[in-house]
Amino acid sequence: MSKRRSAPPASSAGNAPQEGLVVGSHGRHCVVETADGHRRICHPRGKKSQAVVGDRVLWLAPPPGQGEEGTIEKVLERRNLLYRRDEIRTKMFAANIDQVLILIAAEPVFSESQLARALIAAEDAHIQPIIALNKSDLEEPFFDAWMRLSAYRAIQDEDGSDHYPVIPLNLTSDDPDQREALMDLFAGKSTLVLGPSGSGKSTLINLLVPGANVATNEISQALNSGKHTTTTTTWYWMDEARSTALIDSPGFQEFGLYHIAPTDLPRCMPDIGAKAQECKFYNCTHLHEPGCAVMAEVDNEGSPHHIDANRYRIYSELFEELSQSPWR
Ligand SMILES: Nc1nc2c(ncn2[C@@H]2O[C@H](COP(=O)(O)OP(=O)(O)OP(=O)(O)O)[C@@H](O)[C@H]2O)c(=O)[nH]1
Ligand SMILES: [Zn+2]
Fold first, then answer.
1. Which of this chain's residues are annotated to bind GTP (predicted)?
2. Is the peptide bond before 266 cis (omega within 30 degrees of 0)?
3. What confidence tens digit (pLDDT) does each residue in 25-59 have?
4. ipTM of the shown complex
5. In the chain, where the domains are located
6. pLDDT class of 10 with cuts at 50, 70, 90
7. Is the CB of 266 inside a 6 Å radius of any atom of ligand 1?
8. 286 close to 264: Cβ distance less than 8 angstroms
9. Domain 81-248 has what CATH class?
């Protein structure tokens, strides 16, 4: 238990690699937090040690007199990894996370395709998604946006429980009940916050993480003095005990899913997947086959398994898109 805590401080550790947590990612450079909470910039030793935020790594301090920046020797095995992939590249968001909060807002109007894509990527990575709709104080646009989410609120698991938690928020209010509900939602977990620009990600972090701005500025300054690029993804502890974390990551736009096979889409879209076993043909693509139980539910308004027409459109467009993947 206490093995990591009792590791000697970096300066006297000689050449023994120590375990650390990646709490910042800036292109190829990382910020690694040691067991005692100290943070330092580390560079990957080679391609194989390319780490992302949330990774547990073995890192090595520099030899005496050679500055503060360490090297990442090894990335330890990941429990999960959330990423996206387009024609040319893969972007890794974070590893070893418990849940992903997809933060959208009444304004700017959210893209349902982007939301669906983020949910699919989370399902594929076996990470629990939560949908939060912010800016409930903007009554009319909020109402419209909430209605646009009705298909997501209606998706149920076999036992009748809601598959996706969908929560309304007003992050500019200082309502203590909302704050407590958020604390409960995040307690003891690491939660990646994803969302389009302007949805309120920084507002959320500043509300729940005291001193978040200061911490970010300190790291940016350290990185700038070493001529590194600016922060991209950051891990924030919400508590002194370092058991609850929020991870802020940009890059919600252009959410490519080229790593997912089109035939895996029903597994990652639970409303479609619920019916996919009942089609006449075992290898039904749900696009044109006779006896397709999925297509039947699109027209079946009022059914408890009704598949929303927009969801079905997103499914068929994605099926087409992923069939063109240059990665396969
Ligand atoms: N009316 C209203 N405005 C909000 C609410 N939450 C956040 N905002 C405002 O929305 C704007 C965008 O919020 P940010 O927290 O900067 O959004 P972000 O997601 O971090 O945006 P990027 O940094 O561009 O990715 C700010 O002006 C916030 O004050 C809310 O509940 N209601
Ligand atoms: Zn079918």
1. 134-137, 195-203
2. no
3. 887 789 999 988 999 999 998 877 789 999 999 99
4. 0.98
5. 10-75, 81-248, 262-323
6. very low
7. no
8. no
9. alpha beta
Closest by CA to 101, choosing from 240, 232, 239, 200, is 200
User: 283 CA to middle of ligand 2, Å?
Assistant: 8
Answer whether 93's CB lies under 8 Å from 84's CB.
yes
**Axis crossing angle, helix 176-186 with helix 201-208, rounded to the nearest 10:** 90
Of 137, 142, 203, which is best to mutate to test ligand 1, by the most ligand atoms within 8 angstroms of its C-beta? 203
DSSP labels for 137-206?
A: TSHHHHHHHHHHTHHHHH-B-TTS-BSS-EEE--TTS--HHHHHHHHHHHTTSEEEEE--TTSSHHHHHH
| In contact, 199 and 134? CB cutoff 8 Å | yes
CB 193 within 8 A of CB 201: yes
CA–CA dist 56, 60 (Å, integer): 13
Residue 296 class from Cβ within 10 Å (0-12 exposed, 13-18 middle, 19+ buried)? middle
Rounded distance between C-alpha atoms, residue 251 and residue 114, angstroms: 11
Tell me which residue has its CA closest to atom 8 in ligand 1.
200
Pick the CATH number of 10-75 from 3.40.50.300, 2.40.160.20, 2.40.50.140, 2.70.70.10: 2.40.50.140
Mean pLDDT, rounded, for 299-322: 94
According to the annotation, is 227 in a ligand binding site? no
Look at the alpha carbons of 46, 52, 58, 60 in this order and tell me if their dihedral is positive or negative: positive
279 marked as part of a ligand binding site: yes
Structure tokens at 235: 């891990």
Is there a contact between 167 and 149 (Cβ–Cβ < 8 Å)?
no
Q: Which residues contact 161 (CB under 8 A, 6 or more apart)?
A: none
CATH code for 262-323?
Answer: 1.10.40.50
| pLDDT tier at 229, thresholds 50, 70, 90 | very low
